[in-house]
Write a structure and sequence with these properties.
Chain B: InterPro entries: Cyt_c-like_dom (IPR009056), Cyt_c-like_dom_sf (IPR036909), Thiosulf_SoxX (IPR030999). The structure holds two protein chains of two kinds. Chain A is mainly alpha-helical. Chain A is about 40% helix and about 10% strand. Chain B has one domain: Cytochrome Bc1 Complex, Chain D, domain 2. Classes of the chains: A mainly alpha, B mainly alpha.
Chain lengths: ~240, ~140
C-alpha cells in the first residue's frame, strides 16, 4: 500500500505518462483504428505505397530503411540547419533530388506518401531529435501562449482540461503520434498542420501561413511532450 | 490604444461613453443604460457560434445535447450572483481570476494574434452582454 502510494506520488511529481488520444476514443473507433481492413487510413497507405514505386522513391531508399524515420521527426536538416517535418523532407526529396514540381502539402498524393512512410514506424516509440532543443523551446512557449479573441492557450485545453468535455468532444492530451490520420469529421486523411490550424482557428486566432516555422516548432514540442508513446499512423480520430 | 478601442466600441455599441465602472467584484450599472432582454439572452447563451457558453458550461437546458464540463453549471447563477457580479464575470472575468479560461466577452485588453475576422471586435456587444445578464439573473434554481 505504502509502495503504491509512493509510486503514485512519484508519477504525479514526474508528470504522469502521456495518454494517446486513442485511449479516450469510443471502443468502436479504437476497433476501427486497430483493424487494418476497417481503418480508412490504410487506403491512403496503399495509395502511398503505389506512389512510392511510381515516383521512384525506391531508387534512393529501401522501404525497410523507412522504419523508425517518422518516430524521430521533426528533425534537423543538415544542409540548412533548420528543423523540418516529414512532409518537408518528402517535398525536399522530390524537388531538390528528383527535380520534380512541388506537391501541395495537403493534397492527396503528399498525404498518401507521408502516411506510407509514417506507417513503416507504427508501434515504434517516439524518439524526438535532441538537436531540436531550440525549436522545442520555441514550440513550448507557443503552446503556453494565450491567443485569439477567446484568449486560450493550447496548454489550457490539453494540459489543464484534458479528459473533460468541450461541448460534445472529449479534449485529448493533444499528442501528435498518429499523423497523418483519418478524422471522421474531415471524412478523410489530414495532416498535423491541418489539426493545428483547426485548434488555432477554434480560439479565433490567426493561423500561421502554410509551412511557417511556428508549426515545426510546435511539432517539435509536441513530439517531446509525447515521449513514451508509440507511432500510431494512420490513426483514426472522431 | 486597446483601451481607446474598447471605449469606442462601447460608444458605438451602447451609447455609453465611459468604460464599465467596477465596484468591488461587480459592474453595477448596465453597459447600455437600460435593462437587457432575457429571451434574447437565452438564445445567445444557447448559440454555439455567438455565446459559446455551452462549449464549457452545462446548465438547466435539458433539450440541449453536448454541454461542456470545464466550468460551473449555470443553474442557479442568478441566485448566487447579483446582476452586477454577473456583468463583471461576462465583461472580463480576469479581473477576478487572471488565469480564468472563460473568455472576456467585452474586453480587448491583452489579446494576441486575434484572427483577421475578429480583430477589434469584442466577443459580444454591450447590448448582448445586457441580454445575457438579464437571462442569467433569472436562473434562480
Amino acid at each position: 500500500m505504502r509502495q503504491l502510494a509512493a509510486a503514485a506520488l512519484a508519477a504525479l511529481t514526474l508528470g504522469a505518462a502521456p495518454r494517446s488520444g486513442f485511449e479516450t476514443m469510443t471502443p468502436e473507433l479504437q476497433a476501427m483504428q486497430r483493424d487494418d481492413l476497417a481503418n480508412p487510413g490504410m487506403l491512403y497507405v496503399a495509395d502511398g505505397e503505389a506512389l512510392w514505386a511510381q515516383e521512384g522513391c525506391g531508387s534512393c531508399h529501401a522501404v525497410a530503411a523507412m522504419r523508425g524515420v517518422a518516430a524521430r521527426y521533426p528533425a534537423l536538416d543538415a544542409a540548412s540547419q533548420t528543423p523540418i517535418d516529414l512532409t518537408d523532407r518528402i517535398a525536399q526529396c522530390r524537388e531538390a533530388r528528383q527535380g520534380k514540381p512541388a506537391l501541395p502539402p495537403e493534397a492527396a498524393p503528399m498525404l498518401a506518401l507521408a502516411a506510407f512512410v509514417a506507417h513503416q514506424s507504427r508501434g515504434m516509440p517516439l524518439q524526438p531529435d535532441a538537436q531540436l532543443e531550440g525549436a522545442r523551446r520555441q514550440g513550448e512557449a507557443l503552446f503556453r501562449e494565450r491567443r485569439g479573441q477567446l484568449n486560450l492557450s493550447c496548454a489550457q485545453c490539453h494540459d489543464d482540461n484534458a479528459g473533460r468535455k468541450l461541448a460534445g468532444s472529449t479534449i485529448p492530451e493533444g499528442h501528435a503520434n498518429g499523423y497523418p490520420l483519418y478524422r471522421l469529421e474531415w471524412q478523410g486523411l489530414g495532416s498535423l498542420q491541418r489539426r493545428l490550424r483547426n485548434c488555432i482557428a477554434g480560439v479565433r486566432s490567426e493561423p500561421y501561413p502554410p509551412g511557417a516555422p511556428e508549426y515545426v516548432a510546435l511539432e517539435a514540442y509536441l513530439a517531446a511532450r509525447a515521449r513514451g508513446l508509440v507511432v500510431e499512423s494512420p490513426a483514426v480520430r472522431p | 490604444m486597446r483601451r481607446i478601442l474598447a471605449a469606442l466600441l462601447l460608444l458605438l455599441g451602447g451609447g455609453v461613453a465611459a468604460a464599465p465602472v467596477v465596484v468591488g467584484d461587480a459592474i453595477p450599472a448596465s453597459l447600455t443604460g437600460s435593462p437587457g432582454d432575457a429571451a434574447r439572452g437565452r438564445a445567445i447563451v444557447l448559440d454555439r457560434q455567438r455565446g459559446l457558453c455551452l462549449l464549457c458550461h452545462s446548465g438547466p437546458f435539458p433539450k440541449e445535447r453536448f454541454q461542456g464540463d470545464l466550468a460551473p453549471n449555470l443553474a442557479g447563477a442568478g441566485a448566487r450572483l447579483s446582476e452586477g457580479q454577473l456583468r463583471l464575470r461576462m465583461v472580463d472575468g480576469r479581473q477576478l481570476n487572471p488565469d480564468t479560461i472563460m473568455p472576456s466577452y467585452f474586453s480587448l485588453d491583452g489579446l494576441v494574434r486575434v484572427g483577421r475576422a475578429w480583430q477589434g471586435r469584442t466577443v459580444l456587444t454591450a447590448e448582448e452582454i445586457e441580454d445575457v445578464v438579464a437571462f442569467l439573473a433569472g436562473l434562480r434554481d
